[in-house]
Amino acid sequence: MAALYEEFTLCGLVQTQNASDSPIQGIERDGDSDHAVVTDSTRSVTLYKVSDQKPLGSWTVKQGQLLTCPAVFNFQTKEYVVVSDNKVIRVWKDEDLNLDKAFKATVTADVWRVHSAPGGEPVVLFQRGAVRFLDSLLSAPQQPIEDVLSEEEVIRWSTNIVAEEQHFVLFTTEQKGECCLYVQRLNPNTLQKYRLEREDSGASPLSFSASLRDKHLNLLYLYPNGCVYQSVVAARGYVGLEGVQALPRSLRLRLAVGEGELGAASAVALDEAHVAVVGVPHPSARTGKDFLCIWNTNFQTLQAGKEMAGRIHGQVWCYLGKLFVPHGKALSVIPYDCQKSSLASALGKLRHTGIAVSKSSVAVPSWNTLLHGDQPQGPTKIVETRKSKLSRKSQSAQALTVDQVLELIKTGPVDEVQREVEALVSRGDAQDLQLSVGQLACHLVARSQAETAFYTPVALAQLVQTQFLCHSVCPGLLLLSLEHKDYFLCQLCLQLFPDIPEVVTCACLKTFISVPDGDVEMVSLEPDSVSFMEGLVAAGARGGQQNGFSPPLFEEDSCDANHQPKPPQDKKNHTLQLEACPVGLHKAVLLNEVLQTPYSDNFLLPHLKDLDTQQVILFLQYLQFVYLKYSQDVYTQTPGLRSPTMTQIIDWVCLLLDAHFTVLVMAPDAKGLLSNLQSFVKSQVKLFSELGKIESSLQELHKMKLSKDISQYSIEVIELF
Fold this sequence. Notes:
The longest helix has 23 residues, at 671-693. The model is unreliable at 344-397 and 542-578 (pLDDT under 50). Helix 5 packs parallel to helix 7, helix 8 (457-465) runs parallel beside helix 10 and helix 17 packs antiparallel against helix 18. By secondary structure, the protein is α+β, with helices and mostly antiparallel strands. The chain is globular and about 90 Å long.
């Protein structure tokens, strides 16, 4: 459980000439837990007493000079340190009034940052990657500074960590879109370089945060697509290894970013289970608004949120239970509290006093209303009728709180329960909804399981759409939707729940495979997923050459030596048969959702064995169909449409074959299917083999210099050796 408390303004901000630049370089702590050292983006350093919001001292360099890194506090000598004009290190005490008369030393290379932490000596990180202790540097400021980084490599972020007599300096670099992490250990002095995995978009992380937990260095970083990753480096027993090491990562959060990508956002780890994120839209708020949110990474739940007015610069600092966020024209301080993670608190199942709701109407959710805000004509009239009834009723009755709605769910009629749940969700504050949505869903599911006639599909869909639900919050919801054949809600859960168990995933697969096509064709499903399948089937109807193989040539690659070639007409019929989708359009959409559901191979494989032979054959035929369409040159996937990847398709084929290979080999109906799958593999192996033969030639083409004397028409002979 986590909470954000009432914010207060520490100081005003002076806007820079460039609106995109932040007015603050950095915020550091000093020896007093109630103090904050604030360095602005130009010439001033100010010491504040946070609880009183009063400045205790301020120091400024001369006009024409510029502070180029944030000031820090030397915990050993009780002095402040700052760098001006990249090379001038200044040291002073809090009783000094004139910064220009304080001690200063000019070094031989540009400084990136000075880092200081309790229990350790301050260190200086230079822009070319070299690290020096402050005392040794000041004793010989003209000492030569080596270059650690390559010529085009630039530092993007740095920090230092002091714990258990160990001192680390961490910094990340970027070069031509490649990001690396350097871990500099002091005493003994060793340096290790790690390469971060690249995103498919090629984007670089927006922010980094580092901490030491359980004798491991934990690096947390946020990408523009809303993904928050964590990488772990061993601290104890660290040995400097030669060369660049790959840095594994794990996905901790996937934040909804709305349209486009994040421009200015930051994430900082608060403890082992909570992350503070600023500059990311709130899941339930309108677009165009920036929030400070605390997320529980263990349960993927939003714990607290607060709107930050004005421009967000993508900066957040965390010291001793307080978050410092510059936004608009103010630097705000927001106290926070993170309690030890428990399932009840993280999933919103603790006792809550309830929230009052205002008078407004809620439209019946559909994919159009949920995604685009527009409503179909039919349901609009129904909602207007309800609105008039609610308007008359609300004149004499107070809006229901969460506790009152929970009591209503136990005994109330379906229509009234659904109406009040919809109203509560639409009128509630985002932070309060995070606590109450889980309770509402669990109560609705519990009564639906107890009473067959009670089921509220619209209210359940709206609760899922808040994105405050996951499978561990309400384990019975997805199975309940399967029982009631509510495929719209099934699809919604498969898309938004990140923690669906493999046994439930297989239950969904078995249901979708077994349901008749006609039963799902009239069901309203998510438009983008339906559009994807319509485009895929349409592309298949046009035909085309496949990458690496062609269906009419399957017989040529057959491993049966006695097999006789079929006449051309048979090959044509075989091609047409492969291009026909073996399942209906809407059934295919639901199967695609299963393909995109996260899973673990070890846990999924035993449950796949529960499928019967005909279900496995049908699913493999569908996977073969999608695989063929993906391989066609004529098919181009539309960006933004929800669809499975080629890797997901191949992984599922492998899993099904592993689970049912013996049965499939013995089944006469599967002989042709297995033969086709074997042909796929052989053709791809042949393709990659041929590509490998010309790999060296292709590399030579890249090395060749193009002739500048090329007219509009020319013939150039290229010799490959």
